[in-house]
């Protein structure tokens, strides 16, 4: 049948077929995932659907067809990508994905712990610290090369400190051992962050940042081209170091005394350092580090009770007996430190000898002071250096400070500020 009852002509063939006007239903408020877009030929499209004439293209939005085509092609492409992906490569992709998720989880947890402690201890101060990635830390330390080890925690094996190089700058990296399920290592790390961020003293190692992508955060400090007291005095002689004479040893003692006095008097709540861990450089500058066991004395309190922890020989008698301590416990530790500086002896060996004689450590030393035999236990390097009356007086004054600091009763010990004047 032609158009309007007459036979169709050639012109009719090329005439455009009139398009019916669709009645588009009124727009309703869109809710996410609550309604799907349907094609106009769907029986549910609109209130009065109009069927298009035969041969008439569907009145569908071109953009929708393009979107559908793109999505289908993208899906097919993605499926083909994984279909042709070799099994080892697929495993590598999954491992990288899991590693990324794990790092994000660690950053969230560690970041929350660090931030909580920073807020609690900041007193509304701003501390700019850098966040390092695990890759940056590995590059800086040459993947934690053992040749770069500066110091280790020999008491509890909590950490190892490495020297590193980052952005043309020397740094020190403290890696804590264990995992998040090892409370002592994790708490020690957070304790270091808590106290190190508050420090502003030339004789305390400065914290510059941390890495939160590891089970226990890795801490990054300023350059520490230093050696420990064991390396310089207590251990085997190092040929590349000059002998430490009396003047240099007393300078080291003064540096540590100033740092401890700063902790005791520079804060509203005195900080008890607990273990005198220090580093010494070639210029004999000493710096305290490792706040793993440090704790603040509560406001209005004169002492605190806690679990006995620390290096054998450095813990004060009252702390060893009852777990009670305050700033005077640090004074005792300083006396032991000064004793090691002057004698070159490892105090743990001396404490063992005193214990074998059923004699307290301070009584053991008292015998040498009263009998004027202290030079018998002084480092021979110092004895050879003491050739003048002035140096001999310095030696005896320093020995007296040692004896005063390690007295059995905390009340009989001087404060750290008094100890500084006694050394001069």
From TrEMBL:
GO terms for biological process: cell surface receptor signaling pathway. PROSITE patterns: PROTEIN_KINASE_DOM (PS50011). Residues 144-424 form the Protein kinase domain. GO terms for cellular component: plasma membrane. Keywords: ATP-binding, Nucleotide-binding. The keyword Hydrolase does not apply. Residues 27-46 are annotated as: Disordered. Transmembrane segments: none annotated. Pfam families: PK_Tyr_Ser-Thr. One of its GO terms (molecular function) is protein serine/threonine kinase activity. The keyword Nucleotide-binding applies. InterPro entries: Kinase-like_dom_sf, Prot_kinase_dom, Ser-Thr/Tyr_kinase_cat_dom, WAK-like. This is Protein kinase domain-containing protein. It comes from Citrus unshiu. The lineage of its organism: Eukaryota, Viridiplantae, Streptophyta, Embryophyta, Tracheophyta.
